[in-house]
Design the sequence.
């Protein structure tokens, strides 16, 4: 393990966080907030600057940077940023408990949106702004973000990139890492900016527009209102945010293709078609079940569209209280929770492409069982699926289930029933936010013990980084000298 | 599809069922039961004889017998045997509803033990005997059983064998199928006979000893008492049946090794060690959780031992009402439900060997992530795990999860809460029997709709045959002419 480069990169990333904290500080000045709020940001920035400078003062002694270092850096970055990022909540008194503040910040950076706050409306605006800004920062992955600013590790950065960008494949974009990071970054910010403008145009207050655009862009889900998007009661806003969540669940490679005017390749993308298929199917199935519950078909379709978009994109914004929907609708939503968005998007979950490959692998096997002597090869994105690729995808799935089971066991000590434990793990590991029952859309994570909150925070980071980096960090092998 | 051979084998197997029905008929005579009970068996036997003779009168026109035919025969056999096997229940009036009777019989043949009966103690003994005899028959798989009697399809029988014997590998036993079947059959019956004797010796009534030995041997779980094994309140019987369930969850290949005096190979079997490890771990973990709930440590250990043995062997006998145990204990039991016994035993579930291979595959992948340039090969049973083998095991797991999700969705229309739906599917697909809450140890499946019962019956057969044969049967490709 090359400790010096790990230390150096962590230090540089912290300096970046200090810079980002200037934004909520400005908000505090604009809204002329209390001195304790303003001070909380200033103190945090100073603490981060000192730590960051101390850590990055000395250049790394060795240039070696392997996958192992990449995994360790990525995982530690999320924990470090969250640890320091939680200071303003604690110092300002908005979230007095350090564990709660840490949970909320991890939830922000991992774009999960799980909250321990019972009332967000009493918080200062600068604090709400910082809380939601973590979604925007987390959205594309702090290190893709950092890569665009810190080109010094460029040649070795491919390992970070591989650990960071969600999903099994990212097209040919991996090659030119720094260049790629800048492009993604540009697309991401332009889309977020456009969303802010549209929200303002359709009558959402300016401050709220920033908050909800950040939440949708990072597929996070923090809101400035206790009732989430239902607060506004405006159908137009629900449709806009619903559509935005779905768009941020799309592989950004598709937008890159559109940017370079390869419209046909963009539309022919197989994962995009599966994504569309899952969304359409879920909306149709749930709508059929809800017909007896609703008088107004328009409202029903809007509620279902919004909820499906919110869950499959792993955002977690709410308009309807789906706890009152029938059980079978819950199962569909639960399946969408595990599905998640497309690879290479800001969404969490197992990812549409993996799920498509799983299903193809299963069908291939059934066809093989029927005709054992025929060689059956499935294609994905017009390329034959290789055994090695299928192997890595299947193994991910098994790792996911094992990790899920371990979390479920630990969390079950602290939850009153199965659905609470199951959905709490599903909602955090898939970076969604609200679960069902005890952690449902009308409730939150505040009543869990500190121990459980820390486990769920680890689950959020593991979900965001697709488990392996966290397991590598926890493996004793990583820390052994070679 | 070679329809004639499918028809022929089904016919022959039905004739065998007619023969087996003579046993409960004898019981009815011995206990001088009502004429309607006696008649119900006689009518059934006549109906089966007519159908069986009609179906097997004409020899198959073509000798071709491929994997496809094997899968279809195996799956249809379970449905046919259950359909005809349910007639005595309906005719005698013990279970008037045909769907309920079908559910109960499928549950018997698949050695699941899920029941729709609220009171078993009012049933005639011959009916109870037939109900439990289906466990014994189902135990080793009707076709392994049939193979030993019908040696005419010997050369092609390997396909049936492959579809029938549970688990991913059965050592070198596959080669000599008919010979093997006879050996397995012998071990199985000797062990069952020994268990009957031991139970009688320790004070269980003779009739009950047969019933519970059949239930333990097939890892089924039907009892002649509403309170299951708790009825006797005898610690010795609990320990004997607990140990018996564990022994019938062991790969029969191990007993074969013991029979030919290869004790060392038997003890060195890796799957056996994993099995022991899982059992010990589960007992230790649950016991630690239960300490505050029990005054008597002996009783606690006995309850935990029995419950763990009952669940991991997928039998489903009960002594303690584990619904009152803490949630975390439920999660451990749930994980054991999915684990199941060893491959090549009468137990259901995913199987210990598969789980061990999953975990090894996951660890291999983590180690590969840490050191990408080193080639890491895991061993299982002292042989290196090949990619192809890992692929087939992973794919089974994914098929399992997909099938599970589909069942969960359908069942959720008919269950009041998540835990009922989830555990009903888990308990039937893994061939355990009782689940939790609505289908818990103190309740049963009677309140579900007919539609749900049929879906769960399909799940039981799918679980017993490790899913593929059922999927092959349902696939349109199977029925297409080539």
Sequence:
């Amino acid at each position: 393990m090359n400790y010096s480069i790990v230390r150096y990169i962590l230090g540089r990333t912290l300096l970046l966080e200090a810079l980002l904290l200037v934004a909520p500080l400005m908000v505090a000045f604009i809204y002329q907030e209390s001195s304790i709020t303003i001070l909380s940001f200033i103190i945090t920035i100073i603490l981060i600057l000192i730590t960051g400078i101390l850590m990055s003062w000395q250049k790394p002694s060795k240039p070696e940077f392997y996958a192992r270092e990449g995994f360790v850096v990525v995982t530690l970055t999320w924990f470090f940023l969250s640890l320091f990022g939680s200071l303003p909540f604690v110092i300002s008194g908005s979230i007095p408990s350090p564990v709660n503040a840490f949970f909320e910040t991890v939830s922000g950076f991992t774009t999960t949106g799980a909250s321990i706050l019972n009332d967000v409306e009493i918080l200062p605006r600068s604090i709400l702004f910082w809380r939601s800004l973590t979604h925007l920062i987390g959205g594309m992955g702090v290190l893709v973000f950092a890569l665009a600013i810190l080109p010094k590790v460029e040649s070795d950065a491919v390992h970070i990139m591989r650990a960071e960008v969600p999903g099994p494949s990212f097209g040919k974009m991996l090659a030119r890492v720094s260049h790629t990071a800048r492009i993604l970054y540009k697309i991401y910010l332009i889309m977020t900016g456009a969303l802010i403008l549209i929200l303002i145009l359709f009558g959402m207050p300016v401050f709220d527009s920033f908050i909800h655009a950040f939440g949708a862009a990072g597929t996070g889900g923090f809101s400035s209102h206790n009732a989430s998007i239902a607060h506004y009661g405006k159908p137009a806003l629900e449709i806009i945010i619903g559509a935005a969540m779905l768009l941020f669940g799309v592989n950004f490679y598709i937008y890159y293709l559109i940017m370079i005017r390869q419209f046909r390749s963009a539309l022919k993308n197989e994962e995009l078609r599966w994504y569309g298929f899952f969304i359409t199917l879920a909306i149709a199935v749930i709508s059929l079940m809800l017909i007896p519950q609703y008088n107004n078909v328009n409202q029903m379709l809007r509620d279902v569209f919004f909820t499906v978009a919110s869950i499959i994109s792993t955002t977690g914004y709410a308009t309807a209280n789906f706890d009152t929907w029938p059980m079978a609708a819950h199962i569909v939503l639960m399946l969408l929770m595990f599905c998640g968005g497309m690879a290479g998007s800001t969404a969490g979950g197992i990812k549409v492409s993996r799920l498509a490959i799983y299903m193809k692998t299963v069908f291939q096997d059934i066809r093989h069982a029927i005709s054992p002597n025929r060689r059956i090869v499935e294609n994905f994105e017009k390329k034959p699926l290789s055994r090695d690729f299928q192997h890595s995808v299947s193994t991910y799935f098994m790792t996911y289930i094992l990790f899920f089971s371990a979390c479920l066991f630990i969390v079950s000590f602290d939850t009153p029933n199965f659905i609470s434990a199951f959905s709490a793990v599903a909602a955090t590991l898939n970076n969604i936010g609200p679960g069902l029952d005890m952690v449902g859309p009308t409730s939150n994570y505040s009543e869990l013990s500190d121990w459980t909150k820390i486990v769920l925070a680890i689950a959020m980071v593991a979900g965001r980084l697709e488990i392996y980096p966290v397991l590598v960090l926890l493996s004793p092998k990583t820390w052994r000298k070679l």
